[in-house]
Design goal:
Elements: E1 5-11, E2 17-20, E3 24-31, E4 37-43, H1 51-56, E5 63-69, E6 72-85, E7 90-97, E8 113-119, H2 120-131, E9 141-142, E10 155-161, H3 168-176, E11 184-192, E12 195-203, E13 217-220, E14 224-231, E15 239-243, E16 253-257, E17 268-272, H4 279-293, E18 298-304, E19 320-327, E20 331-345, E21 354-359
Parallel strand pairs: 9-12, 13-19, 15-17
Antiparallel strand pairs: 1-2, 1-5, 3-4, 3-20, 4-7, 5-6, 6-7, 8-10, 11-12, 14-18, 15-16, 18-21, 19-20, 20-21
């Protein structure tokens, strides 16, 4: 039986339920460490909602949207735009997950500077707590207690200057997410006491269940409907140069390289990191730049049978999985992969539900 999708609109600041939206043509995705996207459409003069009610329940920038798959919330975020087309009387909606709110808020100090010197997860928690502490700013994201944060997390230093005009999300992305040993974060939606809720999830070194404890298996033939295996060396490197601030011979730089080229010629690229003045930070950037672009670069697009166990929704984002493929291309491939996101197109009257998993290393190819 096809899964039933429900689209619940709520007031962003109060979480008051507005209406259930009659949407079609929906696509949505989720990713660790960045906002996921949503697109869908509806029509005026429909049989389920009056035009006034539909307009009131889809106001961009003030409406939260929760997507239920059967009785489970699988996506939650903010409606950021709508486009009305007169001839078809259609209304096109786009949105992003609640992480996107951090990229719409400026962290501004009136004077001086403030220095965070704490674990990565603690800094991200503090940024979200501060951001929601101002008037008309609390969108209801629950932050974890300090004593529940990972004790083994790495300590970082983040300086906020009064002359900076950066968004909260930008401070999370750079510098906090730009290290080979960065923390991970996402916002998880769930139902509590019959109402949709959301909370900030922080993890170090990575969230999700790892092997051998994970029971997720992706198998072809099996629950994998189809897959694409893309090998691309056009932007891959085996030596990465990272540069920071400085003039002439004083510029901060570092490189990281593979000790064994495995038959490849030397391939290099320079990655710029403006504002970095600490050598140890540049060293870390070089390691991450190499790991993110290292040869061989293989992109894996895996489409699942949405109704065959285990479904992607029965596991948590960040879980590792056993990938087992037996076919003419691989012969037999038995390896471990990590699911860091997904793309979903719900079923409709003329199409079946489509689910594509995003694996670690391939998330950079997904637009945020």
């Amino acid at each position: 039986m096809a899964a039933v999708y429900t689209y619940l609109a709520c007031d962003l600041l109060t979480n008051q339920v507005l209406d259930e939206l009659p949407l079609h043509g929906v696509t949505m995705d989720r990713l660790i460490n960045k906002p996921g996207n949503f697109g869908g459409a509806t029509n005026l003069d429909n049989e389920r909602l009056s035009n006034d009610a539909l307009k009131a329940a889809t106001v961009p920038g003030r409406t939260a949207l929760y997507v239920y798959r059967d009785d489970q919330i699988v996506w939650g975020g903010i409606i950021w735009s709508r486009v009305y087309q007169s001839q078809a009387k259609s209304l096109q909606l786009t949105g992003q997950t609640f992480e996107s709110y951090a990229y719409r808020r400026v962290y501004k100090l009136s004077t001086g500077k403030f220095v965070y010197n704490d674990k990565q997860t603690a800094i991200i928690r503090s940024l979200w707590e501060r951001m929601q502490s101002f008037d008309n700013s609390n969108i209801g994201v629950l932050v974890p207690d300090v004593d529940t944060l990972p004790s083994n997390d790495v300590v970082r230093q983040l300086t906020i200057n009064s002359w900076d005009f950066k968004k909260y999300g930008e401070y999370i992305d750079d510098p906090l997410m730009n290290f080979w040993n960065s923390a991970e974060w996402t916002i998880e939606c769930f139902e509590e006491a019959g109402m949709p809720s959301k909370r900030l999830i922080l993890s170090y070194p990575q969230m999700g269940i790892q092997m051998p404890y994970s029971e997720m298996v992706l198998q072809y033939p099996g629950n994998i409907l189809n897959y694409y295996w893309t090998e691309n060396a056009s932007s891959s490197v085996n030596r990465a140069w990272a540069t920071g601030d400085g003039d002439g011979s004083d510029i901060k730089f570092a490189f990281s390289e593979k000790s064994n080229l495995s038959g490849y010629p030397l391939l290099e690229e320079v990655y710029n990191h403006p504002g970095v003045t600490v050598q140890a930070t540049i060293d870390n950037h070089a390691i991450k730049d190499l790991n993110a672009n290292a040869l061989p670069r293989i992109g894996k697009t895996i489409q699942l049978k949405a109704d065959e166990a285990p479904t992607i929704f029965s596991n948590s984002i960040g879980d590792e999985a056993r990938l087992y493929i037996e076919d003419p291309w691989h012969g037999v491939l038995d390896t471990t992969v990590r699911v860091v996101g997904w793309n979903v197109t719900p079923s409709s009257s003329d199409s079946v539900e489509e689910v594509t998993v995003v694996l670690e290393g391939d998330e950079s190819e997904v637009a945020a």
